[in-house]
User: Fold this.
Amino acid sequence: MTEPEAAQAGKWVVVLPPEGAARNVGEKAWEALCAMLPAGNRKLFDTKSYLDAFDRLLKEPSDDMVVDLANQALIVQCLDFRATHILVIALSPVTRFTVDLLRRQGMAPIHWFIEDFREAKYWKEVMPAYRHFLAIQRGPVEKACADAGVGYAYMPTAAILKPRPSVKSWRERTEGIAFIGFPSKYRVEVLEALAREGLPLKVAGLGWEKYRGVLEANLTGRGWFGPEEAFKLLENSRIGLHLPSEDPAADRGNSHVSPRVFDILAAGCLLMTEEAPMIRETLKDCSIREFRGAAEAVRTAKAILTEGVGDAILAANREVTLRDHSFAKRMSEILALAP
Assistant:
């Protein structure tokens, strides 16, 4: 990037949340930004480092006191860096007061809300302070942004796993169905239905170490399942299964797109997913298979494994995913929001 281009892009601060899947997304977003902007135009503010440090320094720390000190540190760093834009990743403990203050200093605060609005309800409090609010759902979030005069954009996540130059063909894969994710009542219901029908199934993810039931023979990763293990399982599987944590029947329109969906496609699996309008919209250029509920999941899986899928279809899915659903693509879209 030339100096004039860098000047036009502005100076960006990325705020990382302390833990969880949102932190993983933030790390990938920062990695992509590092490849796009020179060092002088970007700065990382890792809330975990500050929260941990203040927690150790204070004799009797309270959560509010630690968060307040971390926010003060963020304000000072943004001012000292002369930031033009602040990208706050979901679940970062950044207060509305801080966002308001930074905006009054001429900075453009942007929030990437990669959580379910029905679960992480803090968004209602902080959203009006932001210039742009990016979300993985539409519906109430988009309407609330319009009512508050905040710029809204639909911004799903992207493939987390490192892309490989090539993957195994359908015929080379020795496993049937792969599911990676924590257990929930609905997920267990669908997975147990598949297992009872004798379908070839591998299940992995944090939380399954406590599970007892018919899926025990299908568990391949108990506890933390790292990116290398995840890619190896997906590349050896013909079907990558996506299941929302809760039964979406009552509110299917707000069932959002998990990063795992993109990982499945990038690994060359056929995506088999619970039907959801957001997934269909986001993956409109990909060939996927949808179902509703456990019984239909069984029928769909049997049909796929019996009929097979052409490698050309899987290769086309992979090409679309690596081109249109990477963090480099997402960060390009976010940079384009800059005033």
